[in-house]
Write a structure and sequence with these properties.
The chain is of the alpha/beta class. It is 35% helix and 20% strand. It contains twelve helices and 17 strands. The chain has helices at residues 16-27, 67-75, 105-113, 119-134, 145-151, 156-171, 180-189, 207-221, 249-256, 263-271, 333-350, 406-424; strands at 9-12, 32-36, 47-50, 53-56, 62-63, 82-85, 88-91, 94-97, 200-203, 225-228, 243-245, 274-284, 296-298, 306-309, 316-323, 360-373, 391-393. The strands form five sheets. It has a five-stranded parallel sheet with strand order 10-2-1-11-17, covered by helices on one side. Strands 13-14-15-12-16 form a five-stranded antiparallel sheet. It has a three-stranded antiparallel sheet with strand order 5-9-6. The chain starts with 8 loop residues before the first strand and ends with a helix.
Amino acid sequence: MNAARPRPIRIIGGGWAGLAAAIELTHAGRRVEIFEAAPMLGGRARGLDWHGIDIDNGPHLMLGAYHETLRLIELIGAHSSLDRRRLRLIGPDLDLSLPYLPAPFHLAAGLFRASGLSWHEKWAAARLVQGLKRHGWRLTHDAPLADWLHAQAQPERLIRRLWQPLALAALNTPIAIASAQTFVTVLRDSLGGPRAASDAIFTHGNLATAFTEPARRWLTAHGSVVHTGQRIKTLADTPNDITLIATSPVEAARLLEGHRAWTPLHAQLNHLRYQPIVSLWLAFAAPLALTPNYPIQALGDADMPWLFDRQTPTQHLISLTASGDGAHCALDNAALLKTWLALLSQRIGHMGHMGPLPALQRHLVIREQRATFAATPDRPRFSHKTALPSLWLAGDYTHPEYPATLEGAVQSGVQCAREILHTTS
């Protein structure tokens, strides 16, 4: 008689970590069954339909350093949805572009050609990066990023104009409490890596187009099953099945609540702190003239929102997004719209395009109160393994080094899948 076919590996959560684990397991010949409580895949990085327009719950920028994410997108045949460009940091008083030169000359040339920074500030930034390289991108001890930058004698204006916007975009955590080591790790794998690692990668359409829907089709075509709108309420029904919890930490804590063996893990999950992301989508009646023509620009320095240009010949769509806790979080939707439209108008005027903004047809405010975990020096660290051999964890919060990014989630899912394969082979 033939041996009974193994039961599929159950994955709770259809975000990027859960999908990455599912693809890795399916590619290795294992069947998986995904259960996602929401009606769509993607978790906290999901695509939405807004009056027939494909948008994201919050715009995301991928980098060339997102090796695992790009590998999986290639594997499932969705690479044509991506647009790779060299990285350019643009604000009202800053323009820093990394030329197509071999590393590390691309970063040196970009810094010294940058407009909006004094020679003293350029030298301070270059000195910081070179010092990190010499020490292997490891700090002797972690500290809040703001304190560490000041200890490295970084000028205040350079911090506000360059390091603070970069850190907020990468860590989604204010620099007063953010981990300096986590920021250094991000620098290591992007600006400090090979030239292509610093490329900016944008999506044609939304994140569903780029990953989640192609992932669903690929998994289904290869024998796995994806359920949406189906919430797992308890872990007790199949205790011996291999189960991977790839939900948010809050949902993972709910699933583990009341199980004595997981009390320490439950406490760890509840110890995580979170940071919000606020996005404002704007649909205008006519195009906005943005100069230079680049898909992402800062509306100011420090903690000002970033502008994502999603305009097409038929849709005049702009998104403004701010990461981390800040003054914008205290504004109601009407005040946020008024304040950010004024910032956008100032930015357009700064580009030399005088006059009012085009007529606003509609807008949408999206607030994710627990969008990411806070990337602080003291955040809890997690293992993929749990006290029960058949139960596993994946998610951006389980990555030992990265902040809450798409690549952190994908790497976590892939690594957890490989550990499951190694353990159960």
